[in-house]
Each structure stands twice: as structure tokens, then as C-alpha cells.
């Protein structure tokens, strides 16, 4: 019974978070009220304030939104697929979601607060769905000889997460002037090709941010 209530609680919180970020993207943060979020998420005021002190508290929940996306994706992944290809697929899908449903302004604000916060850096919480799923894929890839065993699974996961953060930071820094998903689809394999057990082909990349193929 406790487990069921815990799952229900997580679902309720996730529903509020998803509605909030959808409205932040559609209406802007300043123009979105708590009442808007309550209406969109079909949540009572008492329930909302049980989880959040107010609208500002939702700014720290973007990692929750990301983890919801990874949970959704984890149910569609083929265990037989090459692990490196699976990692690249996860990146494309997550970055596509960010590009199409997360305000660049709020993403920038989130990253800036994570840099200066003295408290918990929730984006680096290794108990997140994000890290658990990455560890599962990497471990399976190493067992099947698809990813290098000379590196630990923790080192590979760290390298992957570092590359994602670098690409997100660069996209924010440049004001979203290029397609995050398309550019990452070209750069992630280049950055991470060394984690593959066998590098079957050379990857040539044009570094021009303004290439029309990535806009």
C-alpha cells in the first residue's frame, strides 16, 4: 500500500511539473500563474502546495522533466540494439524535446543557478533515472563487447553526461541560434567515438554553426 501511494505521489508531482514547463514554454514564465498550472494539471491548490512552495520552486524541476522523458524512452528501447547507437538515440530524443518544449531563457537560468548553488546540484544526482538508464546501457554494451572495457562504466557515463552538458551550455551561450538536436547528432558521435570497442569508420564533421544543414 505504501509503495502504491509513493508511486501515486510521484505521478502527481510529475504531472504538475510537466504542465508547468509546457505553460512556461507556451506563455512564458512571467505570464504563467499557479492557477494556470492547477487548471492544466487538474490539480488542487492544496496538492500543489504540498509539493511546491510556489511557482519559483518549479524552476529547479527541469531534471524531473528530463527523467520523465527518459522513462518514456526506456520503454521503447530494443535490448538487441547496439549500445552506442542507443546512447545516440537517447541524446537525439532528449535534445529534440528540449528544443521544442523548453524555454531557452529558463534553461539558461537553470544552468546558471546550478553553477552558483551551494546546495544540492540536482542535475548531477546519480540516483536520477537519467544516470541509472545510462549505467544500464553502458554495462550491457561492455558485456557484449560494443563499448570499451578498458574504461569503467562510470567513466563512460561521466563522459556522455559531460558532452551533453557541454552542448547544452554552448546552445544556451549562443542563444539557440542553431538546431540543438541536429548539431548534437553530428557532434556526439565525434566526441564519444573513443568509447566504442571498434571504430569502423572515420567521422568527418564540419564545425560551422551556421551550416544550413543544422539550422
Description:
The protein is mostly helical and 215 residues long. The protein has 2 domains: 52 residues, Orthogonal Bundle (Arc Repressor Mutant, subunit A); 143 residues, Tetracycline Repressor, domain 2. 63% of the residues lie in helices and 0% in strands. It is built from 9 helices and no strands. The longest helix is centred in the first third of the chain and has 26 residues. The N terminus and C terminus are likely disordered.
List keywords for this structure.
215 residues; mainly alpha; Arc Repressor Mutant, subunit A; Tetracycline Repressor, domain 2; 9 helices; globular; disordered N terminus; disordered C terminus
Write down how many β-strands occur, each being a DSSP E stretch of 2 or more residues.
0
Low-confidence stretches: 1-5, 200-215
Taken from the alpha-carbon principal axes, the silhouette is globular
SS element count, helices? 9
The helix-and-strand class reads: mainly alpha
Strand content: under 5%
The figure for the number of domains is: 2
Major sheet characteristics: none
Question: What's the helical proportion of residues?
Answer: 55-70%
The CATH class of the largest domain is Mainly Alpha
Kindly, what is the distance between the CA atoms of the first and last residues, rounded to a whole number of angstroms? 50 Å
The CATH topology of the largest domain turns out to be Tetracycline Repressor, domain 2
CATH-defined architecture of the largest domain = Orthogonal Bundle
Report the order of strands and helices. HHHHHHHHH
Q: What is the CA-atom radius of gyration, in angstroms?
A: 19 Å
How confident overall, as mean pLDDT?
83
CATH superfamily of the largest domain: Tetracycline Repressor, domain 2
